[in-house]
Structures are given as C-alpha cells and as structure tokens.
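Changelog-adjacent note: as of this version, every example in the card shows the full chain rather than a window. The one below runs 83 residues end to end.
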Amino acid sequence: MYFVYIVKCVDGVYYTGITWNLRKRIKEHNSGIKTPLQKNRLPVKLVYWEKFETRIEAARREKEIKGWRREKKEILINSLKML
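Full-length structure tokens:
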C-alpha cells in the first residue's frame, strides 16, 4: 500500500509526497529527518491523502498533483472536507 499526501507547511506552502507509511513520514517531516523541507517550513500538517495499491500508481498521481497550481490543490483538499 502506498500513499500520496499533501502537507501544509507553517508558512502556507503545500508539499506533495509519496510514502508507504504515512504516519511515520509525517513524523519524519516534523522532526526534520529525511525531508526536503527547510526547517523554517516546519511543522507541517497533513491536509490530504490518497491510497494506492502500487508504487507506480502512486508515483503517477504524485507527479500529476505536483504539476498543479496552488488553486487546484486547494480544490482537491477542500473536496475531502466536503465528504
């Protein structure tokens, strides 16, 4: 099982990533371990995630979301809140 996730950084920036262990990955981000995020962007808050059976599917979706503008990401994030 793989997850594509979006976190919101303390400065308002959205970061999209992929992982097989979502809980562990968010902890790593917030502790500064193995993260591409700069320390001044921490802590992060998980605002969206999707689950996939294969890494290939998840990587495709991650790439798609990373190509989006902020506004489109916010529509996706807010669609989850409406469910």
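Structural remarks: The longest helix spans residues 55-66.
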